[in-house]
Amino acid sequence: MDARYGMVKNGLFLACFSLFLSCCCLFQGHDSGSSPGDISNKRNLDFEGIIQNAKSKVFPALVFIKPICEEFSTGEKRQQEVFGSGVIISEDGYVVTNNHVVEKAIQINCVLFDKDQYAAKIVGLDPETDLALLKIESKSDGASPSNAMLFPVAPLGDSDTIQEGQFVMALGSPFGFTRSISLGIISNVHRYIGFQTQYKYNTWIQTDAAINPGNSGGPLVNTDGMIIGVNTLGLVGLAEGMAFSIPVNVVKDVVERLKKDGRVLRAWTGLHLQALKDFQTNTFTPGEKGVLIQNVDSDSPAQKVGIKSGDILISINGEDVQGGMYVEELPEIRSNLADLVIGNPARVRVLRNGETLEFELVPLLKDKFEGADFDCRRWSFTVKEISKFSTPDLYFLRNEGIYIQGVRYPGNANNAGLQKNDIILSIDEIPINSLADIERIYEEITSDEDREKKVVIKVLRKNYPRLFVLDYRHDYSEED
Questions:
Q1: Residue 30 pLDDT > 50, yes or no?
Q2: Whole-model pTM?
Q3: How far is CA 425 from the centre of its chain?
Q4: What was the pLDDT predicted at 198?
Q5: Is the predicted pLDDT of residue 301 greater than 80, yes or no?
Q6: Which residues are catalytic?
Q7: In degrees, to the nearest 5, what angle opens at C-alpha 78 toward C-alphas 135 and 104?
């Protein structure tokens, strides 16, 4: 649920930095009559002062977030308290954090700098940038904040001005320890991580400042005390000193959209893009401009007008496509497509076999990224709606319906042979086309005490239909 994440040895880092300052000051020490040690100590004190000053600007706005979330992946609905971080960005109590911290939350508590605990509500979620916006509502005892109460606010910087090598601090609550700070540098200002994730609309700030579980949603701060990013990802066991933050300019844009609509409304064209020079897959497409159309969703606006895989997109509404040569340039092009006016015709030009073709497509509103969940508790499995965005492989097999999200062990579904990602086609020969269908049928069957405690479930597994008899005479839910 929460972030995942590398370690930085700050003691070694500071020692190396101190040595660096000492070396830089050797000749200056001789010129001024001061010893190298005196100047080095002074420089160290100056640097520590910069860090303390920057920290003091943001620490009061740091929030320790404790959501109680519902979890379905184990085959049954469970409630658990998780930990995360956030930062207050307005005096009236708006808080930015990560989507993955609060997306399944049924209750959210926030501990502020004064150690008072407040309840908060979700204003909006955006899973495709992993951002969430909360609003502080009341104290945990139910008392509302005074109308005159103003919350401490952290200043937002400009992530377009950052550079590799700049010192940064990651603030948050790692492993549930409140008010923590780690130090590092910016390793890369435009890291692309969209190959195997849903995060395809922006590049990321890579840093070696330690980001551990619980740091998710906390601010990444420069030495001026300005927030330049929101901490999200770290790598555990795979690499040391690699963590990723959402640039603050992306945060600003998403926050305004969440305030307005509760979600980020994006246009859907059905186009999937690939860089002309893709070193990840060793795919190199001839061309000096534009971006490769890797795939086109079936029954999408792009497919309906005749755009094909292999075409090179060169302009959108008369504007030439800038970038597209490398993967770091893809997020901006995707964002431009996502910002097309929903329902309004858009003109796109492509290159196909050396010929320029123009098409007019009508973008649709992109559906919610992830489907809803349901717990078939007596049968010992949970289900979820199929989504073309979060479960594209299942959507390819069936573009509507539900699939098994998790199977409890031990449990009735496991005993019957049902598996995760089975698409449910029917139950006792009754077709299942939606979450509402299975909710209704589950309630009817399990509430009938006179019927035999068995059901026949037909599923689609790896594109092959299969039948299973599920015996639910044993109620595993009573063993919780």
A1: no
A2: 0.85
A3: 31
A4: 87
A5: yes
A6: 100, 130, 216
A7: 25
